[in-house]
Amino acid sequence: MKTPGAIAQQLRGLSEELEPPSQCLFDPQSEEPLLRRTSTAEFSGLELGQIRVIRGGKPRFIHSQRAADFRKRYFPQTTQSEWNDWRWQIRHRIQDLKTLSAMLALSPDEREAIARHHGTLPVSITPYYASLLDPSDPTQPLRRSVVPVTGEYLTSPGESPDPLGEEHTSPVPGLVHRYPDRVLFLVTDFCSVCCRYCTRSRMIGDDETARGFNTRHWEQAIDYIQKTPTIRDVLISGGDPLTLPDEKLEWLLWKLRRIEHVEMIRIGTKAPVVLPQRITPALTRMLKKYHPLWMSIHFTHPDELTPEVQQACGRLADAGIPLGSQTVLLKGINDQVETMTRLVHGLVKTRVRPYYLYQCDPISGSAHFRTPVSKGLEIIQGLRGHTTGYAVPNYVIDAPGGGGKIPLLPEYVAGYDGKDLLLKNYEGKTYRYPDYCE
Ligand SMILES: *Cc1c(COP(=O)(O)O)cnc(C)c1O
Ligand code: SF4
């Protein structure tokens, strides 16, 4: 007999090894029984208060009421299972002014920015992520992160298209070898949702078939890794590697796993957040064959932690993949201690360890997103000591010119009094440490 807690846990984590609940369904929020099944007949699209559970076929997905309402309104012909197919989400990503203006009351500035756009970093929003946008408020954090404004076309002093100098540290196309023991492997230039502040905006395209990134490039990169025994850590990024089909991804992982000196593989992705439907049981089954495999997930704001996203992260965590988050500090989006506290608390509840908080790179047209560094320090000071240590990310600047990530900390060392080290704690009180030993 399964306890309500265990079944609610299943609905949250949905580990595919566990039997799906067959007798009762519980609202994972209240843990109260909502429905008792009396027959074994299949049913689908069952309303469970705020949450819908789709049954009757594998895989099962949580479909929040908000997404369901959005789907009915803008995609009335679409079924729930189509909506929950990540390929459908990519095929129906919103890219043009006409479609977006039917969903959002665009400001004149947003309208002009979309109309003027050409080149890399196209407008691209999955229907799922579009369902989270506020139709009437252009200042809503999630909306600002994906809907362009004309500020994108202004280049300010100090900005450049490739501030990290990635192009100069590429031994072969798509591979950035900055640190001796690890490489950044850019396997695609495609993202399902394009973030307006993207560090790699110079290369992010709109072609799903990943033009310019083909197996020939991959083979060159794999060859380089094979021939460079100092590389013990490969970070697969892009673009978003989880927009690749399972087979291509598995080919890559398989090739990398066969290299003896590659001790760990990491995947950097935003898919669990903008395309949670991508995290299928088949994907997690495949990924867990390639352990030790870690994942860094790009999160921006606590409002992204929907039931769908929690389910996607739960599946990855259940597959034994340690999850870390990466967040870019953005003006008016997540630059408040209160917002960041909600984000990091939501992340640890979702079993994602806050890993990096990035100072926004001086990418061309990013002035409207950048905060002063003092803001980041203030946020770290507002977290450290005030909350769980695991919930505090490392605040870093990726040094322009290719110096790598440099950590920044608020000042906790107040100096010396004789041989006593003076330290400030999280409350601002001073403590002494006798810093002398023979
Ligand atoms: C961020 C990054 C890495 C990984 O850095 P960690 O601090 O180990 O997470 C590796 N290579 C490049 C080029 C990077 O930008
Ligand atoms: S997910 Fe990453 S690579 Fe893709 S647009 Fe956003 S920041 Fe750029």
TrEMBL record:
<dbReference type="Pfam" id="PF04055">
    <property type="entry name" value="Radical_SAM"/>
</dbReference>
<dbReference type="InterPro" id="IPR025895">
    <property type="entry name" value="LAM_C_dom"/>
</dbReference>
<feature type="binding site">
    <location>
        <position position="195"/>
    </location>
    <ligand>
        <name>[4Fe-4S] cluster</name>
    </ligand>
</feature>
<dbReference type="InterPro" id="IPR058240">
    <property type="entry name" value="rSAM_sf"/>
</dbReference>
<keyword id="KW-0411">Iron-sulfur</keyword>
<feature type="modified residue" description="N6-(pyridoxal phosphate)lysine">
    <location>
        <position position="405"/>
    </location>
</feature>
<keyword id="KW-0413">Isomerase</keyword>
<keyword id="KW-0663">Pyridoxal phosphate</keyword>
<feature type="domain" description="Radical SAM core">
    <location>
        <begin position="177"/>
        <end position="391"/>
    </location>
</feature>
<dbReference type="InterPro" id="IPR013785">
    <property type="entry name" value="Aldolase_TIM"/>
</dbReference>
<dbReference type="InterPro" id="IPR022459">
    <property type="entry name" value="Lysine_aminomutase"/>
</dbReference>
<protein>
    <recommendedName>
        <fullName>L-lysine 2,3-aminomutase</fullName>
        <ecNumber>5.4.3.2</ecNumber>
    </recommendedName>
</protein>
<keyword id="KW-0004">4Fe-4S</keyword>
<keyword id="KW-0479">Metal-binding</keyword>
<dbReference type="Pfam" id="PF12544">
    <property type="entry name" value="LAM_C"/>
</dbReference>
<comment type="similarity">
    <text>Belongs to the radical SAM superfamily. KamA family.</text>
</comment>
<dbReference type="GO" id="GO:0051539">
    <property type="term" value="F:4 iron, 4 sulfur cluster binding"/>
</dbReference>
<dbReference type="InterPro" id="IPR007197">
    <property type="entry name" value="rSAM"/>
</dbReference>
<dbReference type="InterPro" id="IPR003739">
    <property type="entry name" value="Lys_aminomutase/Glu_NH3_mut"/>
</dbReference>
<dbReference type="GO" id="GO:0050066">
    <property type="term" value="F:L-lysine 2,3-aminomutase activity"/>
</dbReference>
<feature type="binding site">
    <location>
        <position position="191"/>
    </location>
    <ligand>
        <name>[4Fe-4S] cluster</name>
    </ligand>
</feature>
<keyword id="KW-0949">S-adenosyl-L-methionine</keyword>
<keyword id="KW-0408">Iron</keyword>
<feature type="binding site">
    <location>
        <position position="198"/>
    </location>
    <ligand>
        <name>[4Fe-4S] cluster</name>
    </ligand>
</feature>
<dbReference type="GO" id="GO:0046872">
    <property type="term" value="F:metal ion binding"/>
</dbReference>
